[in-house]
């Protein structure tokens, strides 16, 4: 008997095929800034719950909300022409997170679309704290905060907190602060 290598065959035309269900998932809306009555703005985006984000019970795992918050922060910054990874004449600037929290109000499940609202809760000289509200339609799902510090990043050295560059701070200030707004989901 001679050893044989595994062979891969394409299915025959008579083989049964699996077809995707005909249900269409709702589509995501484009991110936007919503101006509130008191000169503050809230950034709005959406996030579809992916299967990988769920636990054995089919509910979004708590850790996924921290990823959602970071993704929403990046979208907000991009909408303002900014980024968490920038370079200036002195080198690289980064935004390490120093605090993050999330309160879970109602479960979210696979394929659901979550509305995500982001506002500035506090803008300091060297840090920014974001406020995040997650909802499924009118149902609040979670409320989180995240604080990032503006740092100079140098190879082989720990990050060094620096003042937020003036142009960056000005664009963040243009949003106003959540405490200046009635921030509803």
Describe the 3D structure.
This protein has 185 residues and is an alpha+beta fold. It has a single domain, classed as Hotdog Thioesterase (Thiol Ester Dehydrase, Chain A), CATH 3.10.129.10. It contains two helices and ten strands. It has helices at 62-79, 166-173, and strands at residues 32-35, 41-48, 86-88, 91-94, 97-104, 113-123, 127-136, 139-149, 151-153, 160-161. The strands form two sheets. It has a six-stranded antiparallel β-sheet with strand order 1-2-6-7-8-5. It is globular, with a radius of gyration of 22 Å.
For this entry, give a set of tags.
185 residues, alpha+beta, Thiol Ester Dehydrase, Chain A, 6-stranded antiparallel β-sheet, 4-stranded antiparallel β-sheet, 2 helices, 10 strands, globular, disordered N terminus
Explain briefly what this protein structure is.
With 185 residues, this protein is of the alpha+beta class. It has 2 helices and 10 strands.
